[in-house]
Amino acid sequence: PNEELSTDDYAGRVAPFVALWEEEKRRLEAEAAAAEEAYNSLENVKARKLATIDAQTSSAIMAGFECEATPPDTGTPELLHFSYDEFDQQNFADAAVSMQLATASDGGIPTTTPWNAYRNHTADSKGELVILQLTAETFLPIYAAALNHKATKMAEGGQRKAAVASAQTAEDVEAI
Fold first, then answer.
1. C-beta of residue 150 within 8 angstroms of C-beta of residue 84
2. Do residues 69 and 81 make contact, with C-beta atoms less than 8 angstroms apart?
3. Cβ atoms of 82 and 109 closer than 8 Å
């Protein structure tokens, strides 16, 4: 049942609950502050930055690369874009083995391979598909460009990760 309280009732009947509420509020605020401090610790800021760098490095590798090749439709060397996503990385490896085996065997292994490249590639558009017919000789420079592309992006990511490791403050880490 509800009963009317007077000002005289506050100290004995309300104040203890207000004190409990204030104590719990302080406890929750301290817990939140400790969690925020842990989240923003240099160790955790570095860990988040390293994960970001790994993701950015992978994205840069997967974005592909530019390399000069001679499309059959023009017969003129031009700079084309080559995909380097996970499927194309495997395709490059498979083609490299195939080309190597083709030069060492007397048949059965293809000596050419069709390959997709793109003219006028942008970040927003794959561009115009150009299908190349590659031999071991014409494949090798593109394969080398693919390997160099990946190595360069990994080296850039590694340099950024080294900078994170040597950073002394969260602000230094965020600036990387």
1. yes
2. no
3. no
Altogether, the residues listed in the chain come to a count of: 176
Amino acid at site 94: D
State the Cα–Cα distance between residues 3 and 17, nearest whole angstrom.
17
Instruction: Judge whether 99 and 92 are in contact, CB under 8 Å.
Output: no
Beta bridge partners of residue 30, listed in sequence order: none
Please, are residues 151 and 167 in contact by the beta-carbon 8 Å criterion?
Answer: no
3-state secondary structure of 63: coil
Q: What is the pLDDT along the chain (176 residues), one digit of tens a residue?
A: 788 889 999 999 899 999 999 999 999 999 999 999 999 999 999 999 999 999 999 999 999 999 999 999 999 999 999 999 999 999 999 999 988 887 777 777 888 899 999 999 998 999 999 999 999 899 999 999 999 999 999 999 999 999 999 999 999 999 99
Structural domain spans, the chain: 56-166
